[in-house]
């Protein structure tokens, strides 16, 4: 089994946003054609620390190069106050014939990158031919940092980014870093109203309190796209008044997401207009007016697609470590029965 640690994965992802975007796009399209298996994620919520959880995401992705495995990702929001990353993750890939594990990857950056790539793809698809010169980032953690790295690929015309965070200093720190990485773009910090004045707004916070009422910001631009990545920020009124696009209806409308709460309020899912695969393949055109909200639950097939890309690159580049002893070995009885006589 090949083991890729954090540094190996970082090297395999460095400056490879186009490859990640293509892997995520392909995964969505295959999923839309029914060429995947995505069981519901499993949630483990320990009694302490409050608000913490670990999620399992098993999946199978078909296509020309099928892959299967599972991501095991923790989210401990209290880590941030100690200067640690909120999320940690590992990804296992399994052999398609035997089921044996063939690779183990440190996958926190894979997870953040697939989330960010899915957001940037959705922004481009949902805006269609409209130029996106302004973006807003609500929440200034790792996810939105990665979102910006992909937005500059899908919207090369981007000119200004507005950042806000519950802790203003975080917004200032991220803005300074992004100015260094993207000197041609203007980065400004402010409040939520400023960020919500942008054409595309990415919402990635640790707040699960359905706090964001879009109607309280009437000067938002027509045709705005909200990338609702943290899933539990919007209130139900905002969900029900928007055009909603998801990655998978069955997954996105559960686990007390904002869409789940809206379903409980109205008793149906008619407010969900499309899945992103139908927008990407052109079956559902972008809506030029109103507000479109993209709420991706985060499908395990995206982790598989990006992990497979990382593993292929790492293998070519000689990254990682091959470790023996992770296969269970031969079966004592049947192995003898299948031996061919001399």
Automatic annotation (TrEMBL):
GO biological process, one term: siderophore biosynthetic process
UniProt-listed Gene3D superfamilies: NAD(P)-binding Rossmann-like Domain, ornithine cyclodeaminase, domain 1
Organism name: Streptomyces pacificus
Protein name: 2,3-diaminopropionate biosynthesis protein SbnB
Domain of life: Bacteria
GO cellular component: cytoplasm
Cleavable signal peptide: none
Matching Pfam families: OCD_Mu_crystall
InterPro entries xref list: NAD(P)-bd_dom_sf, ODC_Mu_crystall, ODC_N, SbnB
GO molecular function, one term: oxidoreductase activity, acting on the CH-NH2 group of donors, NAD or NADP as acceptor
């Amino acid at each position: 089994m090949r083991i890729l640690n954090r540094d190996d994965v970082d090297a395999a992802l460095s400056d490879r946003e186009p490859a990640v975007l293509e892997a995520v796009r392909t995964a969505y399209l295959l999923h839309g054609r029914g060429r995947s298996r995505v069981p519901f994620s499993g949630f483990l919520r320990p009694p302490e620390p409050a608000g913490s959880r670990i999620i399992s995401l098993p999946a199978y992705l078909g296509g020309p190069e099928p892959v299967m495995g599972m991501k095991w990702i923790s989210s401990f929001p209290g880590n941030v106050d100690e200067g640690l990353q909120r999320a940690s993750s590992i990804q296992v890939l399994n052999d398609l014939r035997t089921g044996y594990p063939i690779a183990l990857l440190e996958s926190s950056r894979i997870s953040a990158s697939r989330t960010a790539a899915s957001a940037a793809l959705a922004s481009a698809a949902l805006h269609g031919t409209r130029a996106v010169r302004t973006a807003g980032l609500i929440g200034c953690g790792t996810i939105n940092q990665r979102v910006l790295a992909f937005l500059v690929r899908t919207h090369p015309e981007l000119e200004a980014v507005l950042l806000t965070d519950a802790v203003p200093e975080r917004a200032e720190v991220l803005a300074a870093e992004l100015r260094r990485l993207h000197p041609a773009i203007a980065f400004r910090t402010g409040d939520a109203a400023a960020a919500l004045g942008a054409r595309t707004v990415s919402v990635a916070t640790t707040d699960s309190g359905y706090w964001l009422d879009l109607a309280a910001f009437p000067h938002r631009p027509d045709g705005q796209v909200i990338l609702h990545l943290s899933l539990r920020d919007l209130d139900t009124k905002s969900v029900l008044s928007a055009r909603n696009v998801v990655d998978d209806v069955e997954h996105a409308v559960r686990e007390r997401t904002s869409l789940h709460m809206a379903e409980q309020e109205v008793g149906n899912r008619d407010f969900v207009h499309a899945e992103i695969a139908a927008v990407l393949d052109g079956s559902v055109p972008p809506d030029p007016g109103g507000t479109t909200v993209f709420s991706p639950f985060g499908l395990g097939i995206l982790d598989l697609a990006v992990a497979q890309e990382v593993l292929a690159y790492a293998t070519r580049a000689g990254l990682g470590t091959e470790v023996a002893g992770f296969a269970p070995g031969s079966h004592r009885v049947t192995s003898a029965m299948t031996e061919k006589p001399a």
